[in-house]
């Protein structure tokens, strides 16, 4: 990068995600820069080092539509800056959704039995994880499950762990 691109890089890594989404449309260079893994890591580092970054994620059903809605609030005022429906993938799959996380802004949405999605509500993007390939015992039933979400910094990848209780 040349010096002016370095300045743009530093400025953009300090902006909120909602601004970055809009700025992807400025030009091809900005689009590729904002999607670059190094940029994303630097932006996350800057975000995590801010002094006031309390976030609260609330899941609720709308009064009239009974649709699932997520509200993401920030700072001590709890002003809502994101108010959105769950990803389309979940609307017809199942009723009960468990929220796991967040971890670096990523939320794990889990539904029965093996429907798992990693979701970034700030950029409204999600990734459907493949269903578990673990063979279940014939005649057994699932009594319960638990999930965990973490980040592997060595591999720069998120990990979802699932514990299934069988009978």
From TrEMBL:
Domain F-box: 3-43
Protein known as: F-box domain-containing protein
Pfam families hit by this protein: F-box, FBA_1
Domain of life: Eukaryota
PANTHER family: BNACNNG10540D PROTEIN, F-BOX PROTEIN CPR30-LIKE
SUPFAM superfamilies given in the database record: F-box domain
InterPro entries, alphabetized: F-box-assoc_dom_typ1, F-box-like_dom_sf, F-box_dom, SCF_F-box_component
SMART domains: FBOX (SM00256)
């Amino acid at each position: 990068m040349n010096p002016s691109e370095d300045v743009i890089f530093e400025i953009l890594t300090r902006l909120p995600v909602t601004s970055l989404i809009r700025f992807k449309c400025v030009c091809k260079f900005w689009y590729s820069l904002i999607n670059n893994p190094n940029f994303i890591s630097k932006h996350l580092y800057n975000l995590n080092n801010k002094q006031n970054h309390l976030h609260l994620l609330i899941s609720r059903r709308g009064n009239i539509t009974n649709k699932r809605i997520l509200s993401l609030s920030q700072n001590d005022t709890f002003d809502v800056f994101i108010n959105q429906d769950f990803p389309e993938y979940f609307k017809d799959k199942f009723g009960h959704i468990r929220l796991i996380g967040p971890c670096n802004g990523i939320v794990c949405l889990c539904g029965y039995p093996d429907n798992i999605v990693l979701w970034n509500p700030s950029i409204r993007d999600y990734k459907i994880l493949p269903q578990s390939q673990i063979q279940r015992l014939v005649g057994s039933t699932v009594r319960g499950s638990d999930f965990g979400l973490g980040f592997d910094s060595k591999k720069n990848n998120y990990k979802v762990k699932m514990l299934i209780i069988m009978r």
